[in-house]
Please model this.
Amino acid sequence: MRGEIVDAGWWTKSEQLDPQQAHIVNKVGVDDSFLVTGGPGSGKTNILLLRAQYLYLKRFKNIVVLTVGRSLTEFIRTGIAVKQVLEIDHISTHRQWSIDLIRQNRPHRLSEATEGDFRQSSRRCAEILSEVAAELGPERYQAILVDEVQDLGGEELDFMRKITPRLILAGDGNQQLQAGKGIASAMGLGLQQFTLPFHYRIGHAICTVADRIRPPVPPAESLLATCRYDEDALPSSAKLFPCASIDAQLEKLVAAIRRQLKAYPNELIGVLVPSNNDVQRVKECLSGCEFANVVGYHESGRDGDRSFTANQRVCVVTIDSAKGLEFRATHLMFVEKLRTARPEKLFTAVTRAKTSLSAYSTGSVPPLLDAAFAEPAEPTLEDLF
Model:
């Protein structure tokens, strides 16, 4: 897996940081704990990793960077391998880190911690770890940095606070995928807070769709109003394609990928699907295409491959697993299955796109998505009859 990833552009150069971003990276006190909030594309993950590198170079070697999803963890690990900053072992999913700590400190409860579905297992892990916090002590880690913190709960964050003097969090409440948790848990810790007001990677057309899914309050804080994307350099687009069948959706997808592999050389293309079963459906289609050797499938299960290989240009992944990832072009498949999806999930899905967003449906479209992609029209009286 450890080849050079296509488009590791999320590793910003120092001259590309705005003044506030630069301040957070290396001007905030080295012993400070804090929370960074901001919308998609505002640089949260980049800042978190640069702060981790800063602490590492300050000789804080016992640090860990945690994410909620395994796909994002692998993406970060790949960037670290390319840039040769930190060590791969410093990056982990929150779940794997929790299980490893239980294995080390409560091995007789390991099977209990891993029973049930993800939510049940997470709850048990939090309960077990709360019992060992005092044993681990307040400096078990010199620093813990957490991305996508909106999907962790208060008990999980309280545990981290007890075992490190430096807790650094980043998140966005609009991208909360786990019901019952949220950014409020992080804010409740009383940490110093920084809000990133601008974003840099999402085009205007995509901002418009996202703002319709999660209307901002106040309007001045909309993605479109706070956008610093260079629309002149790469004009953006966002379109919904009604299709007669699933096969027709896949045909459109194949044709679009062919074009985009040429239009966006050395950049990632994302294919987002509602469920793990849908990953397999797309795989059946794309495996026979001439570009099959540059497609990666982020499959389910502990043994499922979530890596980003050197030649990977197309990533097929569930919406939940795509959180934190970004793609020059994003294809949102089978949206008719998203009727019961929470607005935060839909917002997360569409904001994975930088320049091109395409959604495909067969049958009725969820009203929220239908409205988000709707183009202005002037119906006549005759159109009503």
In short: Confidence is low (pLDDT under 50) at residues 1-8. Residues 14-196 form a domain with the Rossmann fold fold (CATH 3.40.50.300). The chain is about 35% helix and 15% strand. The longest strand covers residues 353-362.
